[in-house]
Structure prediction request, 661 residues.
Amino acid sequence: MSNEKSSDLERQLESMLEIEKFEPPVSFREQALWSDPEVYEQAAADPEAWWLGQARELLDWDTEPSQALDDSNPPFYKWFADGRLNASANCLDRHVEAGRGERVAYHWRGEEGEQRDITYAELHAEVQRFANALKDLGVEKGDVVGIYLPMIPEVAVSMLACARIGAIHNVVFGGFSAESVRERMEFSEAKALVTVDGARRKGKTAPIKPAVDEQMDELASLETIVVVRHTGIDCPMREGRDVFYDEVVDAAEPECPAEPMEAEHPLFILYTSGSTAKPKGILHTTGGYMTGVTATHRYVFDLKPESDVYWCAADVGWVTGHSYIVYGPLANGATSVMWEGAPDHPHQGIWWELIQDYKATILYAAPTAIRTFIKWGAEIPEKFDLSSLRLLGTVGEPINPKAWLWYHEVIGGERCPIVDTWWQTETGAIMITPLPGITATKPGSATTPFPGVQASVVGESDGQPIETGQGLLVLERPWPSMLRGLYKEDDRFIETYFSRFGTERYLVGDAARVDADGYLWVIGRIDDVVNVSGHRLSTAEVESAIVAHEKVAEAAVIGQSDEDTGQAICAFVTLRGGTEHSDELVEDIRAVVGERIGKFARPKRIIWSDDLPKTRSGKIMRRLLRDIAEGRALGDVTTLRDPEVMAELESKIAEEADKES
Ligand code: ATP
Ligand code: MG
Prediction:
């Protein structure tokens, strides 16, 4: 692309995206833990020393680390390697010992409205018993324990009990099929699995244990299945292998001292969501991970553990749940809300009812949820008192400016800063984010790296940093909570992250833009960049323009091979409830995109779709849309939430092809 064209495009994108800057409200800044931008300079002056300081200050160590980074064998980096600590002791014992045992760790709310407040002291007691029970069942340090549970307190207990004895947990999101669980257990050679009799979803109960049995019978490594009695439905048990959670916990000794672990002892394995390829088994270790999540949870959410009620509305089965429901909040002594159910059961205002009831002050949610709430209408949250909220966060996908503004106005009452946090399963903790008492935000931008983290946007072919413009996102130096590898796939680890630009730089796999203020705009996966007549466009930007049309609820854009332009834009569009599609609307939407970005960005095809293919964590799977648009066989679909969506789209495309021929 010629320079002239490129700067022209830059200007158009700037004007489209830079709607307004939102400064932190003065009252927020005055109370914030961090309000002085100097923290960025302090960290940048010597990132390793700065992280070592965070590690020592925020965590309790049995042996303090003397060194931060060990980079003697890149890209297999180590952090705080001569330190020893226990993650569960950092989440529990130190709070109880300091007299904070009566503080609520989780306000748990069940699907049917049941309420349980679990204090730090109670959690501490239960974790010790279950840790002893696991030991009694033969689980030892270094063994892998699968966890396949719904959003119930036992999921946190199980994770912490593993951490206490040095077992490595491998949590599988409760929405996955038993078959996916088996694959993950088989691959990680899990010795035990903690699961549940049945799961509840929107008023219905589904048996889980029988489905698990069907899959696990062949699994030689699996010696024990622990079953939490949650729904009370009938549950077959195999003699010699299966035990009930409550029975083994009751029989176990009450005290289980936390065993100090080497900082690099594995804490967990977790599979990515599979938006782009076959899921990867990400390995995290103890000291660096705990440092990263504790620091980011405290400073990104400006957490005041004595007064805040924090709610991360993710599922524990994703990294967001690991880092920001379990390890980060507990290490900081926070009080959290934990909700078992769906956002529309028993009614579409349940989230807002929970915020009202618990006077939640911080909400951390995904753009996919926000888009859903927009579809349902602002009248619903408006019926509830959300005045306790003081900070909002998002994670998981780029957030369209329209959704950001809605979140800001309707949920945040225009008074709450929004932290749009960019990170990955691989990064363990938040990497690019505003600091709510410091950073002026721009809707749609995750802004700048967290102190001690260095990110760049680099040219695709030469890897040279780009000052302003679009390219590939990379992280420039190792950071404490980085993945230590892909479980049993060293080659894939190097190939995926450290082959393109060497072992010193981590290739993220996302494309990003950097603007004149140095703000980063993560615009999607590398594959989500479309090239129309030499113009490189990000799907996220075209989607944001389409969604800006008042009748549109959601859109997914892909590039489709095109004889004239190389690639042409094809948009899958979901309309707001009650809207009829028409040829006129097609022209309207094309006009909106033409106005906002430029004529070349107008979609060549618009395909109406009532729903889009999403991963089970709610992300749009553009690679499957590309597959059907190009008439290819579908790639890995195991993490697809609703397979019927694909069947419907395929028949729609076939219909259209018939019409065209
Ligand atoms: P897979 O790697 O298997 O394809 P995945 O990348 O969806 O799955 P995660 O690790 O859960 O699995 O998601 C991380 C990705 O989510 C990031 O690489 C990025 O593409 C996207 N993402 C997360 N947060 C943000 C954000 N705030 N803004 C833009 N994109 C985000
Ligand atoms: Mg990924």
Notes: The longest strand covers residues 552-562. The CA atoms of residues 180 and 638 lie 7 Å apart.
